[in-house]
Specification:
Structural class: alpha+beta
Strand content: 25-35%
Number of helices: 7
Number of domains: 1
Helix content: 10-25%
Distance between the termini: 37 Å
Radius of gyration: 19 Å
Strand order of the largest sheet: 2-20-1-5-6-7-8-11
CATH class: Alpha Beta
Shape: globular
Number of strands: 20
């Protein structure tokens, strides 16, 4: 979730960079893959006029639907966009393809509506990854479970079950809290992990808790709270935030974030340290740089990403328009506009 409240100096100190608890697994042998395909099932925007290119397939307007006020009795519709994120990730290594769902959007049916319009099925999905427990990434899990029609493993951080709220004056908002019991009943085999996990025969890495090492990514401002030890308290770290990482053969790392609450530079550097792969090929997902509280984070983030020289950068969801403009200006050859229904094709060398 996004929030625009400012932190006090004392609260900022609570979110100072720190290392994730426990021993790090370093390095991790992440098997290279030959191809990665990432379809954005849901994002905050949909643009039916964006052109496709050699590495990007855009979803245009869909088949006709009834609309009596048009002369032909029908009209075309686009895909849904909402304040949420979800992606379908397929990796290919040799002849073997594996598909995972990363996050599930905001609404119970949004990603299913978009998948149906795109002609996508979930028959070959082998697992679900939840980037963190915020409801705008978990809203469609119930609908997914029913569509799967079979039990499905889901990797999640145990802090994702924690109640949270935005304690904003005049409009406080207690976020919907995930129920582990309900998800198990829906058909998910819940796998709780705080440390890195290797999936798909060692070719997909889920980061687990991300080391906080930069001096400018301080996490969420004071209004973001979690209910811990019987009381509401500032939750700057969103410690359950984790990302998906793939090593694209001959190209480098492909990193997919949900909101990037850990800080996207922290996330990329954490992935580089874990895998021993120094090159960032592509970074996609939410960068959480929206709102006044995050304006100071934009310049050092842009500078750090520019120094990494990625081939493709696709900021979406909670990145915010100021950060989008800054990233597009600094990385014009790498920046790609995000939109619901877009498929990004990344091929190894």
């Amino acid at each position: 979730m996004c929030d625009t409240s400012q932190s006090s100096t004392a609260e900022a100190a609570l979110s100072a960079p720190r290392l994730a608890p426990g021993s790090a697994v370093d390095p991790i042998a992440l098997e290279p893959v030959d191809e990665v395909s990432i379809t954005v099932l849901m994002d905050n925007t949909f643009d039916g006029l964006l052109p496709s290119d050699a590495h990007t397939t855009r979803a245009g307007f869909g088949p006709p639907v009834p609309a009596d006020h048009f002369a032909g009795g029908t009209t075309a519709v686009g895909l849904l966009a909402e304040h949420g994120f979800s992606a379908l990730v397929t990796v290919r290594r040799g002849q073997q393809r594996t598909t995972l769902v990363f996050d599930a959007g905001l609404s119970p049916t949004g990603i299913l509506t978009n998948a149906d319009q795109l002609g996508l099925r979930f028959d070959d999905v082998q697992g679900v990854i939840l980037s963190h427990g915020h409801f705008d990434h978990a809203g469609g899990l119930g609908g997914l479970a029913r569509r799967f029609g079979r039990r499905m493993p889901m990797t999640i951080h145990p802090f994702a079950w924690t109640p949270r709220r935005l304690n904003i004056p005049q409009r406080p908002f207690e976020m919907p809290t995930l129920s582990q019991k309900a998800l198990i009943a829906e058909g998910f085999d819940v796998i709780e992990r705080t440390r890195p996990s290797l999936l798909v025969d060692g070719s997909v890495l889920i980061t687990g808790e991300v080391d906080r090492t930069t001096d400018f990514e301080h996490g969420m401002p004071a209004a973001h709270e979690a209910h811990l030890e019987g009381r509401w308290q500032h939750d700057p770290t969103v410690i359950d935030d984790q990302a998906l990482v793939v090593h694209l053969r001959g190209q480098g790392l492909v990193v997919l974030t949900g909101c990037g609450h850990s800080g996207v530079i922290n996330i990329v550097r954490h992935a580089q340290r874990l895998t021993g792969v120094p090159t960032l090929h592509a970074l996609l997902g939410g960068f959480h740089l929206s709102g006044p509280a995050f304006d100071p984070v934009i310049p050092p983030t842009v500078a750090a990403l520019t120094s990494m020289n990625p081939h493709r950068i696709v900021p979406g969801h909670c990145t915010g328009w100021r950060a989008q403009h800054a990233l597009a200006a600094a990385l014009p050859d790498a920046w790609v506009a995000s939109s619901s229904g877009t498929t990004h094709h990344l091929v190894g060398a």
